[in-house]
Predict the 3D structure of the following.
Amino acid sequence: MSMPLWRAAPVGDVARKLASALGMPLRVARLVAARGYRDPEEVRRLLTADVPWSHPMDFTDMAAACEQILWTVKRRENIAIIGDYDVDGVSAAAILTSAIRALGGDVSCHIPERVSDGYGFSLRLLEDAKKAGASLIVTVDNGIRAVEAIMAARASGLGVIVTDHHEPGDEVIPDGIPVLHFTRHRDPVSAKRGCGAFVAWKLATQLLAEAPESRREALRAWLMGLAALGTLADMMPLVGENRRLVREGMRGLAVSGRAGWRILCDRARVSRETLTASDVSWRLVPRLNAAGRMAHADLAYRLLMADDEMEATRLADEIEALNERRREAVDAAFAEAASLVEREYGANPAAVVVAGQWPLGVVGLVAARLAQTYGCPAIALADMGDGTLRGSGRAPEGISLLQLLSQCSGFLDHFGGHASAVGCGLAASQLAPFRAALLEAAVREPRTSSNVPMTLADDYLVLSESADELLMWLEKLAPFGPEHEPFQFFVGPVEIARCTPMGGGEHLRLVLTEGDARQEAVWFRAPPAVARDPSGLWAFIVELAPNAWRGVVRPQLRIDRGYRLPRAVSREAFASAFRALRRGPCTLEVLQQRVSSVSADLARDLDSVLETFLELGFAAQKDGLYHVIASEKRDLRDSVAYQSLVRRYLRPISNEGE
């Protein structure tokens, strides 16, 4: 059975209707049609991101939360914000601190230290809040599971408000405590898409309704930008309200003149004038996260809050150094972890659990690389040196790691998080049984048996065609993220005309050729096998991104993964078969004889070649004979039969070799 390699293969009629209705190029219409869009109005909303804002009061406890905060501000008592050590938690803390200070409130911010405190509101952070003289505690991006600390705070006479977006545990927060969470929202399905900074932003928006208009307007764009920062950092679905939040919030970040943000962008070599979601996700978020991973997230919080130029410069330089340490630590830990996986699991594991003497702050990044490399749930654990292991897990799309852990909870001291990202801890003595239990649970999950997914990309890309207009439309369709992933394209069959190492050999700059067309591409973290032997025929899955150089922006191919191909699927091989067919009508057997002298592989696959010719209208069959017919010029990749032939021969190139 023929199977398309890209989603756009069967959408011709729908794409033509969308292109006509919206005045967009057919190639762009193919992309959105392949994502399931059929109604022009839906596509228009995708382009404009003009969904209405949900009202802060849709959180059913919002009025009670605001009343308690405003009452505390009025009495000039301290409010303690309890944040988290990732960018979402830091952004949420900055949002709420800024809003309450704009109201004239006294605020202290307390962010846990990853190793000594662990995640979320704890008894130790409660003591810190007491020392600061707090009468009210507000959690941001945590708290939904912190029942012990909440009860202790109440017993001490402190008020508590919880704002969070994580999954709740079995213990229930006592009545009378305002909880801003998707479980207490008029539209819980939609609200569940919001991150911790999103929830804090909704609370800040409602609070600032009481502030003078001048203060409110001065903060509006910045707070929205911080909420967008948290949304991108926590990789929340970029659909609906989140999509509008990121698009408009990016504008707020781009125009912000705050010293901390401005200098952070300078250190990351990011232009605020052309700031993109990709810049935030891949250049700025890792730097802010490095503070919490390698030292204390309070550094990132203070940088976002900094107005003083000298303080901002000092903090940005410190974070830049921590980010470099983080890179080195992740590379070393991943190399060791991958070696453990190879030794203990072998090929195609259903799930992996590894432990080592690694910094706790990098195990989440190691788990993410393991999940991507092996295509399965992965947990990386840091040995804490006291008989316990703590770490993080990541899972590919479509697998709920949180659900898998719930089946193994008897071996864990604690766990929590999201479907695709979790944190957990256990006694070192429980590592072996936990590993076995997780593997057994993962085996029960449905998994694909092929190294080649059903579809490789959204559509194919022709190197001889200008990509400038396509890139312009892709930027209109941005921002991209979960549930609105970046569009990917199949490029191939192509050859590598030049292969130049970058970044100490870890990355590659390639020049690809397709007939007479040439196109530059970059491949970050390229498998070593490519540089060792770039010869032969290739196919690549790429994203199209803007590349600015000396004020000129050009489309650039950024390779996600690559495959080797045999010559039998090349345009030259098909041209040989076509020339043989032009010698006169013949049967399949006769045509095989004609091409066997050219290529044995081509003769073997001639049935697929002829199926491709018939599908594209290059040939016809009558009375058992095949013959050439006049037809318009078409690309071989338009044929599903050709796509199936390519699929048959794709050989993935991995970081472990070929």
Observations:
- Residues 56-214 form a domain with the inorganic pyrophosphatase (n-terminal core) fold (CATH 3.90.1640.30).
- The first strand starts at residue 78 and ends at 82.
- DSSP finds 25 helices and 19 strands in the chain.
- The chain has a mean pLDDT of 90.
